[in-house]
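Project standup — Tuesday

K.O.: blocked on the structure for the chain from last sprint. Re-posting the sequence here as requested.
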Amino acid sequence: MYKRVRLRDTVEVPPRFLADVSDQLVKELLQDKLEGRVDEDVGSIVSVVDVVDIGDGSVLPGQPGVFYNATFDALTFDPQMQEVVDGEIVEVVNFGAFVGIGPVDGLLHVSQISDEYLAFDEEGQQLASRESNQAIGVGDAVRARIVTKSIDERNPRDSKIGLTAKQPGLGKHGWLKKKREQEEATAGE
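H.V.: unblocked you, prediction finished:
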């Protein structure tokens, strides 16, 4: 999901900064240009970490700045299909729960949370079962698997990630802990 990668890109240094072209300046310009953007090959660029090398500058006709090729390390977020992720419920709606998994939210549809019917409790911001009295709501930690993804490179906030928690070992952390404790108690008898 998160990776540190080495990338190359060109950055324009405005004329007012040409007296002091430093790693820090190039890093800040790269951060402004790239952070929050999606690259098809590496995913979302979360942070430019270090500038490794700054090449010679080039002047282009009609352009006021000087263009530098820079090699840098970046932290990226690239969710993979079938990857198991941990996240926190950030919003509950009548059709499911949105789970924060890094810089994007994934949708845990109500049909992918439990085999039981879950009713939406708008006031309590949770989905609750009448059968087992279990509930899942804002702030709960969950483990889920990525089952669909549609990444929007132009507007990363519009990316869609579908999750499921209906497989063994997935679900609300509290439910998983309770099940583990019950299994240990049964095994000890």
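K.O.: great, moving the ticket to review. The helical segments are 23-34, 173-187. The first strand starts at residue 2 and ends at 13.
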